[in-house]
């Protein structure tokens, strides 16, 4: 009973989107165009906002806590939109009892991407060295105009939640 969105492109001047029966938790990008995050959570679910998330110059994140479970929404812009030499990391988000969902603009076979890149290989190594597993199935998360399906989006769960997360 939740929806997690990346690249909402909402600004402080945007009217908040409404999904009947859901509460919107929103984080707009403070600079540039694009980006932005949103979590819609069913009004029957009690949750709290989590602050003090790890930050860097490019990664956007937001999180809520439902019971003992953290739900983190992440957006990492494409390499072409980041400073040269920027290397994103998921490590700060890989904490116990967590679901991590996001558009990381990285490609690796670990999350069933048909293409691979260095960013994806680095993030896949971080995941492999953690107590997290990937929930993606062998289905692309994006089919761009060139019709080459890719998977820049990822869903992960800590091992403690993995068996109940499909």
Model description:
The protein is mainly beta. 9% of the residues lie in helices and 30% in strands. It is built from 2 helices and 9 strands. The protein has helices at residues 118-128, 159-162; strands at 2-6, 22-27, 37-42, 48-50, 60-66, 69-75, 98-103, 132-134, 153-158. The protein has a 6-stranded mixed β-sheet. A 3-stranded antiparallel β-sheet has the order 1-3-2, with no helix packed on it. A hairpin with a 2-residue loop joins strand 5 (60-66) and strand 6. The two termini are 14 Å apart. The model has no long low-confidence stretch (mean pLDDT 91).
Largest β-sheet summary: 6 strands, mixed
How many β-strands, per DSSP? 9
Helix content estimate: under 10%
The largest sheet has its strands arranged as: 4-5-6-7-9-8
* Number of discrete helical segments: 2
Topology record:
Layout: E1 2-6, E2 22-27, E3 37-42, E4 48-50, E5 60-66, E6 69-75, E7 98-103, H1 118-128, E8 132-134, E9 153-158, H2 159-162
């Amino acid at each position: 009973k939740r929806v997690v969105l990346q690249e909402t492109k909402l600004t402080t001047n945007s009217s908040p989107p409404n999904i009947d029966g859901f509460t919107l938790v929103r984080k707009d990008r403070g600079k540039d165009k694009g980006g932005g995050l949103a979590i819609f959570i069913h009004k029957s679910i009690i949750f709290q906002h989590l602050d003090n998330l790890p930050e860097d110059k490019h990664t956007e994140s937001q999180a809520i806590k439902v019971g003992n479970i953290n739900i983190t929404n992440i957006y990492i812009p494409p390499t072409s939109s980041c400073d040269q030499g920027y290397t994103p990391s998921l490590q700060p988000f890989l904490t116990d009892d967590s679901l991590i969902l996001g558009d990381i603009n990285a490609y690796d076979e670990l999350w069933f991407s048909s293409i691979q890149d260095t960013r994806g290989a680095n993030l896949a190594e971080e995941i492999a060295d953690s107590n997290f597993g990937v929930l993606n199935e062998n289905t692309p998360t994006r089919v761009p105009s060139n019709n080459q399906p890719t998977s820049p989006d990822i869903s992960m769960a800590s091992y403690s939640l993995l068996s109940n997360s499909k």
